[in-house]
Amino acid sequence: MWRRGNELESIAEMASRKNRSGKANRRRAKRPPSAFALRWRAFVGLIHTHRWHSAVIGFLLLFVGGLVGGYWIAGRMDGSDRDKIARDALEDMKRNEQAPPPRQSYARIEDIPGLPRYTETEPGQQIATVEEKPRTRQVAAAVAAVATEQTWRRNALPFRDLNSKPLIAIVIDDVGLDRPHSKRAWELPGPLTMSFLPYAKDLREQAKAARAHGQELMLHLPMEPSGRADPGPNALLVSLTDAELKQRVTTALDSFDGYVGVNNHMGSRFTAFKPGMETVLRQFKARGLLFLDSRTTPNSVGDQIAQELGVPSVARNVFLDDDESLDAVRRRLTETEAVARRQGFAVAIGHPHEATIQALRDWLPAVAAKGFVLAPLSAVLRKRNGWD
Fold this sequence. Notes:
It contains 13 helices and nine strands. By secondary structure, the chain is of the alpha/beta class. It has two domains: 45-80; 128-385, Alpha-Beta Barrel (TIM Barrel). Strands 1, 2, 3, 4, 5, 6, 7, 8 and 9 form a nine-stranded parallel β-sheet that branches.
């Protein structure tokens, strides 16, 4: 009886549960899939169908994305690095900022440190005084034959008093580079001879001003020295070909006009180089110019080759300012007087240094009283060769 009752209760409970489940199922009816879900299922199906193509496309997308992303990240990092470097540099400048040093002034161009010294001699070298050797009649006649109507005669300062007294020609080299000192040199009482460097600034204007003060003009041609001194730009070098030498000489000869001839600037190596000097002197001859051998070396062949080629030439006797002290320049002027007395003329070369200008300013007014005649270089050339 009791067991029968339990079975009836179990059947009733199961029926009740089934009834509730059916109601719940009726309440939870399935919804139709959304458009997005349908598209997604279609996309997944497409990928599954074309899985190899999909793999390739996916790889390409990852590669391109990585490349673009890498450049973007690198650009951001680089920009941040540049900003940091700029900030650090500004901070360093602020920390190291100091007041500018006081401006240094100099009374003379020779006092400015670091400038090359344009002198004829090597540092510490003394060049001896050189006197004339008698010229053979054949050489003198050959030179005279081509020297009658030449450029050097047209550009020479007028001068007639060749034979009454010994002649002294003062040649100032390196003119034009140091403009204040060059101007002071050509404003000295003349006639003097101003030899201009071809690379000086405003060369034509400076040469014109010097000639207006009654000075004779020359071209001071840079040539290779034996030591390490700097002869300046476009110097004549023993390593150059004939064509290169001719080109450099032509450029220098065309730098200005109105000059009587050329002398060498430095050149202790080049003037001893016979092939090069022959090339150069033939160009002087073609233009009707005289040559002054500065004799910066006892081995110079310049004057000898000039005579052989029929180029009017003369040679330096005294260097005034190897030693740039005032007393040394005065002693050299006294030595110039002695040479002029012995051979009838003397050629002395100086530079627009302070001591040289001062010594000449003191010496020039007394030249005539001592029995000498101050003359341009062309006059000494004429006297040396016996030309009227």
